[in-house]
Amino acid sequence: MELQLLNEQGQAGAGVAAADTVFGREYNEALIHQVVVAYAANARSGNRKQKDREEVHHTTKKPWRQKGTGRARAGMSSSPLWRGGGRIFPNSPDENFTHKVNKKMFRAGICSIFSQLAREGRLVVIENLSIDAPKTKLLSQKLQGMGLESVMVITDTIEENLLLASRNLPHVLVVEPKAADPMSLVFYKKVLVTKAALAMIEEMYA
Prior knowledge:
Elements: E1 2-3, E2 5-6, E3 16-17, H1 20-23, H2 29-42, H3 103-119, E4 123-126, H4 136-145, E5 151-154, H5 160-166, E6 172-175, H6 182-187, E7 190-194, H7 195-205
Parallel strand pairs: 2-4, 4-7, 5-6, 5-7
Antiparallel strand pairs: 1-3
Helix pairs in contact: 2-3, 4-5
């Protein structure tokens, strides 16, 4: 597999060879879906709390006598059938949302995403990406010069200037290869990988 290579000015050069085991796999939509959903679910933490009938503050007095009123039987006003009563299956912050995906499936899913990005022309390799000062404008101009707006930048080491400049750009994410997650790879329109980071990705997933 050969990927497009840009120099630091964004000009196209000769292609760079990439491992077929990482960037030449078949597209497996079901696997990618499973990996992305599992990643999103595992990042989720419960933040809703509802009360069951034991926790709501109600009197334990029987609302009316058992027989003779013509109405349905009622024991307590905290019953889930009553307005203001407790929930039968309340939401809890301790609820577990995790989905299990084993390492082999996760690695295969990441490789399938990288392969599809390469086929669609959304994966671009650059010699190096750096800026002289931690200025958002400098990074924005550099990326626009390459025709990149919504972009995930994968670099071997994150320079401080690059990290600080990217924080105020809502559609730019700068990460190291080990932090490249399936959700971000799918979300961003382009993925820009430095040549050194490409070698690290091949070493991790080949």
